[in-house]
Automatic annotation (TrEMBL):
Molecular function GO labels: transferase activity
Family matches, as Pfam families: Glyco_trans_1_4, Glyco_transf_4
Residue ranges that the Swiss-Prot or TrEMBL entry lists as coiled coil: none
Source taxonomy: Bacteria, Bacillati, Actinomycetota, Actinomycetes, Kitasatosporales
Organism: Streptomyces albospinus
Residue intervals of the Glycosyltransferase subfamily 4-like N-terminal domain: 17-203
Keywords of this entry: Glycosyltransferase, Transferase
Gene3D superfamilies: Glycogen Phosphorylase B
InterPro entries the record matches: Glyco_trans_4-like_N, Glycosyltransferase_grp1
Protein name: Glycosyl transferase
Secretion signal span: none
Length: 413
């Protein structure tokens, strides 16, 4: 199979689960003998633009005509079987879908978050779940400045969502939801249910697996409010005040709360802030964990770190909402705490650290769950099956003389 992957890479200064998923899928397909090419832009390149070039970036968010022309020309030359779209913000834009329609190549898209129904893609505002824009216009997001706390920065995302909704929903053969929880939200928002397939992300089998009891609890991820970092700090302070749990908390990552986390961890024996780990360091840190803690306050669409812990045979303490509910079997592969509640998180951390035999059993069950649902072999089979479904669907439409492009959905600009 010949696949062209389309992705706007996130800035390298911040850890990105999406970048990791894209790279792993490309490597998986190539290792299986498929031909995979990449059409990408990099957010890192914005810094090198001239001042007028930087000022023009928001204008490209809803529509980038140069990308449409460049991608359409490449598609006509290379004729891939399918185009796999990931992130298009901020430099690619939904113009990539028009290019696919121009060239008559079927497109599939992985939905890594909720940007189809929420401008910032988080379904969260002021640290609490928010669905005000779901199934409606995105004006509330602009009013509240939901993207980076700025009304001005939110406008391009809101405009793109409004003017390109029909293009997304008609121009993509198959949407890959990364959890059933995410799919349920999108169906309720009015997205076409028949084109929304659940395809969990896979995780490579790590070269490090837990062999003993573990020497620390681990938070691994972006240091942001939505990830529950402040909730974790409050819970850990309560645990420390009552004597701790016998092992330290290791915090690995970077993000907007880095300065706050650094100050909180300074001078403490029970907390170690280690900054941003590379891939090998992440795997070693997970494998040495008593448990991995994922206390997100937003509705995670998947939760890559949860599955990475499972792969290493490590149980998880996670918030009991969003995709975590389908990834973690409470009391079997880990523990689920009540979302946003410090006391519940404290209780779960104490339990998972206080019962070594039970912890070991949960780690073994977590590994079995990984092998059955999130291994590379499972991921490859599901991905290729979905590609074939999309290709067959486009072929059937073409035979019927009713392509979406002919209805104007792909050529209106």
């Amino acid at each position: 199979m010949h696949v062209l992957v389309v992705h706007n890479r996130y800035a390298s200064a911040q850890p990105s689960g999406e970048n990791k998923v894209v790279d792993q899928e490309v490597a998986l397909l190539r290792a299986a003998g498929h031909r995979v090419e990449v059409f990408e832009r990099r957010s890192d390149d914005i810094a090198a633009r001239s001042l007028p070039g930087k000022a023009a970036v928001p204008l490209l968010v809803p529509w980038n005509p140069a990308v449409r022309a460049e991608l359409a020309a490449r598609l006509r030359t290379e004729r891939p079987d399918v185009v796999h779209v990931h992130n298009v913000f901020p430099l690619l834009s939904p113009a990539v879908l028009a290019a696919c329609a121009d060239a008559g190549v079927p497109a599939v898209a992985t939905l890594h978050n909720y940007t189809q129904v929420c401008p910032p893609g988080t379904l969260q505002r002021d640290g609490r779940p928010c669905t005000e824009c779901v199934g409606a216009t995105p004006l509330p997001a602009v009013r509240h400045g939901c993207y980076r706390g700025s009304r001005l920065a939110t406008v391009p995302l809101a405009v793109s969502l409004s003017v390109n909704r029909r293009r997304w929903w008609s121009g993509v053969e198959r949407f890959f939801c990364i959890s059933a929880a995410q799919r349920d939200v999108l169906v309720r928002a009015g997205m076409p249910a028949e084109r929304l397939a659940v395809k969990h992300n896979f995780v490579p089998d790590p070269d490090a697996r837990r062999s003993g009891a573990g020497g620390h609890l681990l938070y691994l991820g972006r240091l942001a409010e939505a990830k529950g970092v402040r909730l974790l700090m409050a819970a850990w302070d309560e645990i420390a005040a009552s004597g701790g749990v016998g092992v330290p908390l290791v915090v690995a990552g970077t993000g907007p709360l880095e300065r706050e986390v650094t100050a909180w961890a300074a001078g403490r024996d029970d907390v170690r802030y280690v900054g941003l780990y590379d891939t090998a360091q992440c795997r070693q840190a997970v494998a040495r964990s008593v448990a991995v803690v994922a206390p997100s306050t937003w509705l995670e669409a998947f939760g890559l770190v949860v599955v990475e812990a499972m792969a290493a045979g490590v149980p998880v303490v996670a918030a009991g909402h969003g995709a975590f509910v389908e990834l973690v079997e409470d009391g079997v592969t880990g523990l689920l705490h009540r979302p946003g509640e410090s006391a519940s998180l404290v209780s779960c951390i104490r339990r998972i650290a206080a019962e070594p035999a039970r912890n070991r059993e949960m780690g073994q069950a977590a590994r079995r769950r990984y092998e059955q649902g999130f291994s590379p072999a499972v991921g490859l089979e599901r991905l290729v099956d979905e590609y074939r479904t999309a290709i067959a669907g486009r072929s059937a439409l073409a035979r019927g003389g009713d392509t979406r492009a002919s209805r104007g959905d792909g050529d209106s600009r």
